[in-house]
Amino acid sequence: MKILVCIKPVPDSESEIAIDDSKSWIKEINLFRMNRFDEFALEEALSIKDRDKNVKIDVISVGSAASKDVIKRALGMGADSGILIYTEDPGYISPYMTAGYIASYVKEKSYDIIFTGVMSEDYMHGQVGPFIAEMLGRPCASFVVKQEILYDSKCVYAEREIDGGLIEAVQVSLPAVFTIHSGINKPRYPSLSNMLRAGRTEIEIIDSNLISFPVLKQKIMLLTVPEKRREGVVLSGSVKEKAARLLHILSEKAFIN
Amino acid sequence: MQKDSEKIIYIVAEHFENIIKPVTYELVACACKIKKFYPANIRVIILGKETEKLSFEIARTTGLDVTAIEINELAFNNAQIYKDVLKELTEESHPSFVLFANTPHGLDVACGLSVRTGGACIAGVEGIDKIGETLCFRKQMFYGKINAHIAADSDTLIITVQPGTFGIYRPESQKPGSVETRKVQYSSEIMPVIVKRRSETLDSPISEAKVIVSAGNGIGERENLDLIYKLAGIFPGSAVGGSRILVDRGWLEYKQQIGLTGTQVAPELYIACGISGASQHLAGMKGSGFIVAINKDKGAAIFNESDICVVEDLKTFIPALIEEYEKESKA
Ligand SMILES: Cc1cc2nc3c(=O)[nH]c(=O)nc-3n(C[C@H](O)[C@H](O)[C@H](O)COP(=O)(O)OP(=O)(O)OC[C@H]3O[C@@H](n4cnc5c(N)ncnc54)[C@H](O)[C@@H]3O)c2cc1C
């Protein structure tokens, strides 16, 4: 069995995000980590491999240098090999483009399962997984919170979170695409031995310019900073002064006695 | 070229267990907003096994014309059937826009329709505006810190609308719309689907609490939950909640999860500690009476939803707050 896991780097939630001079993209960011939803997707693949040593896991990322680091981390967690579809431009890549690159790569291969995270934390589209499935003409189960391979029937039983408190259970025949939701497992940390191996493993690098597919025209015209929807009084002073001020406000509003 | 009077905006209704989901009326509100910039006729499409009650309900409450597509094979919201049927409909009538709810179901179908018809698809739309002459769709990026205004050059543009952002549509006219019902037979093989409730219940005192102190990933270590519980202890009638991340880790129970896929709360006071303010979290708490956010990142999106912003490390601020409180109550 072969599994492909799609991963990407994202800036952390604490990173400063500033709009650049073009007003349609952000200033360069230097610190990235793996998208959390992708960690869950990768862990799900690794846990299948834990039970069956014949499973082979590839990870794939569309991007530039930062993608290499998350691929290395994925290898450190236990993936077998990594593929980078290299794009020169560090700017915005639409989910349709990302999916197009990955689907083009996959067409030539024979993956039984493709896992992605439900969405990337930075772009927040949630479209790459369903797009890949559709481009390949394969079934897709999105927002998966539980899955189990039914080897006899070449199916996966998957539970999708379709609403707060509601679960949809589906049976999907392989090959198929699954987008993995958070909380499905506890992603492992890279191990030292795997990290050493990762250091020696060559990442397969593919030039995105060599991949072509019909493109849908969509672009970011402008980035703006969201408006404040409430008063948003920023407390000032030392920690102690802020604490005293907040207490004062809360007792004036009778939240504390 | 289509004349304005021939241009169409389709809304794909969402329903479950014979009830129209409120987000359907938010799609109507979004369509009306689009119509201000782009004159067109709005039509609601509803797919289902039995649609009579629901289609007339939509026609009555919105005054819009409805096309009901009855498919006997359609148990639950099977995305595969939706994609096939909507592709045909789109190719037949060339709508300028097709609107879905940005739910697991809506997103799935929207992406499928996009690839199948070659229409661009923008997901998670929260607003509409014109930049110069170009119609743009606003969505959040980067943990809600940035809004992107996206335009697409596409004969049919497919949009998924973020629930809870456009408000519910209130019609001006009392005249109900017309209902056209079509019956479609679906013969392809269908993926088996069943729907069940999550085993843990959402029944929790949290929806009744007057004050909610809520913890996010910013607490860092599990031990720091103690700080959150201590802080909650100051307030009579309080409960502790949190973001999905902490529930995923098992640090909090599911019934404490606040947000789109947890509990929606509106306490008199909500204190967000180390929460970034992603839209899925905001969906569960933005109706709160008074919101205080403690976050060390002054750019965190949660501050846009807050009455009081405390830009501090919660590990130093919360102990200081508790100390100050104890000092005051002794005095
Ligand atoms: C379909 C779907 C459904 C979802 N449903 C929900 C839901 O119901 N509820 C929900 O909450 N999420 C939900 N999410 C997840 C959501 O998108 C976010 O990932 C999540 O809300 C982020 O949680 P957080 O704010 O705690 O963590 P982060 O985004 O990591 O934010 C942590 C924050 O803490 C701050 N911080 C860090 N250290 C400190 C410190 N020492 N002192 C003060 N501040 C600090 C940081 O600046 C940052 O702003 C859902 C996602 C999807 C895709």
Core attributes:
heterodimer; A: 257 residues; alpha/beta; Rossmann fold; nine-stranded mixed beta sheet; two-stranded antiparallel sheet; B: 331 residues; five-stranded parallel beta sheet; 8 helices; 17 strands; binds flavin-adenine dinucleotide
Summarize the entry for a quick read.
With 257 residues, chain A is of the alpha/beta class.
Descriptive account of the structure:
The complex is a heterodimer of chains A (257) and B (331). By secondary structure, chain A is α/β, with parallel strands linked by helices. Chain A is built from 6 helices and 13 strands. Chain A has a single domain, classed as HUPs (Rossmann fold). Chain A has helices at residues 36-51, 65-77, 95-107, 128-136, 192-200, 239-252; strands spanning 2-6, 9-10, 33-34, 56-63, 81-86, 113-117, 140-150, 155-163, 166-173, 176-180, 204-207, 217-224, 233-234. A 9-stranded mixed β-sheet of chain A has the order 9-8-7-10-6-1-4-5-11, sandwiched between helices. A two-stranded antiparallel sheet of chain A has the order 2-3. In chain A, helix 3 (95-107) crosses helix 4. Chain B is an alpha/beta fold and 331 residues long. A 9-stranded mixed β-sheet of chain B has the order 9-8-7-10-6-1-4-5-11, with helices on both faces. A 5-stranded parallel β-sheet of chain B has the order 14-13-15-16-17. In chain B, strand 8 and strand 9 (146-153) form a beta hairpin. The relative contact order of chain B is 0.11. The model of chain B has no long low-confidence stretch (mean pLDDT 93). Classes of the chains: A alpha/beta (257), B alpha/beta (331). Strand 13 (233-234) of chain A pairs parallel with strand 17 (308-311) of chain B, so a sheet runs across the interface. Bound molecules: flavin-adenine dinucleotide (FAD).
